[in-house]
Design a protein that fits this description.
The protein is 71% helix and 6% strand. It is built from seven helices and three strands. It starts with a helix and ends in a 5-residue tail after the last strand.
Length: 175
């Protein structure tokens, strides 16, 4: 895990929370967790930060896109935390090869699920997370939201509305 990146990410979180009300406990709690994570990266702090990002989103103190961008960066770090544990468990003398082989399998699973989501959006025009959950009952809403964020980042879909009125649709090209 790149220490310089963690410092920059912590600074981003500090700048973002400057827009929270001064006496708001969430402002200081998020900073405290980011500091703890900077000192000793662990999944517990990431899970708590993720929950706090959800609360902050609802409060509407800052731009949702700014908040979601930092939230996504922390979510990416969660994946990095899990990689060394998997490599250690396999006790493989060539951990790079093990990791390189695991990536396509993971991407394939995400790709298949995301393709089903795209097909659903093509058929229905737009959808909310709970609607997609009905066609993929074994997938958690949180995972579906991650899929939506991933597809948003790649420019495949777009988000309409906010909070409980958030819909996703296939991105239309303006001419």
């Amino acid at each position: 895990m790149n220490r310089e990146f963690l410092i920059q990410l912590t600074n981003k979180l500090y700048r973002l929370t400057l827009f929270f009300p001064k006496k708001e406990p969430l402002r200081y709690k998020m900073r405290e967790l980011a500091d703890d994570f900077l000192i000793k990266p662990n999944e517990k702090d990431l899970e708590a930060l993720d929950s706090f990002f959800e609360v902050a989103l609802v409060q509407n103190w800052v731009s949702p896109s700014d908040l979601l961008a930092i939230k996504q960066e922390y979510a990416n770090l969660a994946g990095e935390l899990k990689k060394p544990k998997q490599e250690k468990k396999k006790d493989n003398p060539g951990p790079i090869k093990v990791y390189a082989e695991a990536v396509p399998v993971m991407a394939g699973n995400n790709s298949d699920r995301q393709e089903r989501i795209i097909e659903f959006l093509k058929e229905n025009g737009r959808a909310q997370v709970w609607q997609v959950k009905q066609i993929l009952p074994d997938v958690s809403k949180r995972t579906l939201r991650r899929d939506f964020e991933n597809m948003l980042g790649r420019g495949k879909i777009e988000r309409l509305g906010e909070r409980n009125n958030t819909f996703y649709q296939i991105k239309t090209i303006e001419s």
